[in-house]
Amino acid sequence: GDSVTQMEGPVTLSEEACLTINCTYTATGYPSLFWYVQYPGEGLQLLLKATKADDKGSNKGFEATYRKETTSFHLEKGSVQVSDSAVYFCALESGSARQLTFGSGTQLTVLP
Amino acid sequence: NAGVTQTPKFRILKIGQSMTLQCTQDMNHNYMYWYRQDPGMGLKLIYYSVGAGITDKGEVPNGYNVSRSTTEDFPLRLELAAPSQTSVYFCASSKTGGFSYEQYFGPGTRLTVT
């Protein structure tokens, strides 16, 4: 079945450092790919998405490119802020009801 | 616009008790989902629904039941609670038509079974 493998955390960075969180997937066909973010005590929010190969999703300074050849969708940000501290989930969409399959999540802590 | 609301926020159950987790969305979304999130893990799909009167099992349906009598509501029923059902439960909804619409998540219900 479909699966998502995500870089394990936790990740601790200083403010203004560069961030990369790796995500690879296994799926039939070419699913849409997502990054969701979960702030403490809250539900998940969509951060960005890409629906086909070579698409780049971007939002709030975060970017991820859909790489079909490496089945990857790595999340990047050039300069993190303390407010970026959260858990980040990579996910793929599949099935007739567009169910999401999630990675295990990566806890990011950004220190001032 | 409330989005997706869930009640209760927290609950402690004894083994063998039953309860219903409520989920309501006001966005007129046809698709609704229930996920559970165990500590340090990603979310796993329990049940989903593509419209009123239609439900189907996800990856981890054992020990749960759902119903969908209206577009807005998608309650999750736990019968005979077990410690393995200690988790955070999230309800989500999304639009239909087209593809790859965002799923909107509720704030979650933290359930402890002791």
What is this entry, summarized?
The complex is a heterodimer of chains A (112) and B (114). Chain A has strands at 3-6, 11-14, 19-21, 23-26, 33-38, 44-50, 56-59, 62-65, 75-77, 86-94, 99-102, 106-111. Chain A has 112 residues and is mostly beta strands.
Number of contiguous helices of chain A: 0
User: What ranges of chain B have pLDDT less than 50 throughout 5 or more consecutive residues?
Assistant: none
Show unreliable segments of chain A.
none
**How many whole angstroms does the radius of gyration of chain B measure?**
13 Å
Helical content class of chain B: under 10%
Q: What is the CA-CA span between the terminal residues of chain B?
A: 36 Å
User: What structural class should be given to the helix and strand makeup of chain B?
Assistant: mainly beta
Seen as an oligomer or otherwise, the chain set is heterodimer
Number of strands of chain A: 12
